[in-house]
Amino acid sequence: MIRLSKMTDYASVVLTRLAVAAPTLQSAVCIADATRIPKPTVTKLLKLLTKAGLTHSVQGPRGGYQLARSARQIDLADIIGAIEGPSGVTECVTDHDLCDLTDHCHVMDHWHRVSVQINQLLRSVTLAELATPKLQRIPTLQVNDDY
């Protein structure tokens, strides 16, 4: 199973908080309180997300963080890339020089194809969708029309 780090999971929560609060600036303390993620972790994530161009910081007593672009323009691949770095199912997909078998490998092309499919799926889910609560399904009543 492909598993993302806890930091990537937390990054999606932090960004979702910023999306819901947009365009209001949010301090690291406010985000930490709202998400219940420890403040040092939120601070570290915000630095990484700002470096990746997903958030923007405003300095000063009324400063804070906000999304650098619309939540519809940020997708899961962006979030994962900001925390995990370049993504690929295997290392050879992201850097052919990491593997000594590249010249003789018969499976690399298949792993590349899988990586492309996963990346397309990650690109199809936006932060706006993450920030939209899942609607609770209301059970429908079965009506008996035989009466």
UniProtKB/TrEMBL annotation:
Q: Which Pfam families match?
A: Rrf2
The superkingdom of the source organism is Bacteria
PROSITE patterns associated with the record = HTH_RRF2_1, HTH_RRF2_2
Instruction: Name the SUPFAM superfamilies for this protein.
Output: Winged helix' DNA-binding domain
Q: What protein name applies here?
A: SUF system Fe-S cluster assembly regulator
One GO CC annotation: cytosol
Gene Ontology molecular function: any one: DNA-binding transcription factor activity
Q: What Gene3D superfamilies does this protein's entry cite? A: Winged helix-like DNA-binding domain superfamily/Winged helix DNA-binding domain
